[in-house]
Amino acid sequence: MSGQNVTFLGFDAGEKRLGVAVGQMLTQTARGLTIMPCRHGQPDWVALMALVDEWQPHAAIVGIPRHADGSASNSTRTAERFAGELARRTGLSVHRIDERLSSHAAAQALKDRGQRSDVLDAEAASIILSTWLSEQPS
Q1: Is the separation of the CB atoms in 7 and 57 below 8 Å?
Q2: How far, in Å, CA of 44 to CA of 66, rounded?
Q3: Please, which residues have CB within 8 angstroms of residue 131's CB and are 6 or more apart in sequence?
Q4: For residue 36, pLDDT beyond 60
Q5: Higher-confidence residue: 59 or 123?
Q6: What's the pLDDT at 9?
Q7: What residues are paired with 42 via a beta bridge?
Q8: Distance separating alpha carbons of residues 16 and 111, to the nearest angstrom
Q9: Could you tell me which CATH class the domain 7-134 is placed in?
Q10: Residue 18 burial (CB < 10 Å; 0-12/13-18/19+)?
């Protein structure tokens, strides 16, 4: 996979919103794409499937939040449910990554760039995906 311009989608899944990012392996970069509203932790699957069809990702990366001590929280369960459903509906490989600090990092990055906080979830998805891309062998 290294050296190829392979596309991935990254997700920051929450009860109320789903941050979505797109990234490429070749450049090992990601950018926020959109924020989708969720109902009880579930996005509009028709709209999400349209994004998957549009971007044709090789795989999906889902951030899994945990408490500082590594234990699960309600948010962990929401993200795990989303990851499982995403795999089932799309047939994509879904990689899970620890995202304990992605929202804090996203908030700081937006503040540093003077950007609005309403794109926080997409920025968090971008950080999740960027982190995963940087951890892949080159």
Answers
A1: yes
A2: 25
A3: 97, 99, 102
A4: yes
A5: 59
A6: 99
A7: 39
A8: 22
A9: alpha beta
A10: buried
How far apart are the two ends of the chain, measured CA to CA in Å? Answer: 9
Residues in the chain: 138
Q: CB-based contacts of 130: which residues, under 8 Å, 6+ apart?
A: 10, 23, 28, 29, 30
* Strand pairing report for 42-43 and 59-64: unpaired
Per-residue pLDDT for 102 more than 60? no
Average pLDDT of 72-85? 92
Q: Which two tokens stand for residue 15?
A: 């009860």
Indicate if the pLDDT at residue 41 is higher than 70. Answer: yes
Strand order of the β-sheet with 7-13 is 42-43, 29-39, 17-24, 7-13, 59-64, 93-98
Q: How far apart are CA 34 and CA 51, in angstroms?
A: 10
Query: What is the residue type of 1?
Result: M
Write down the pTM of the prediction: 0.85
Instruction: Kindly state the tokens that stand for 37.
Output: 């509203």
Instruction: Give the amino acid at 10.
Output: G
Question: Residue written as tokens 């609005």?
Answer: 116
Give the E-state strand segments of the chain in sequence order.
7-13, 17-24, 29-39, 42-43, 59-64, 93-98
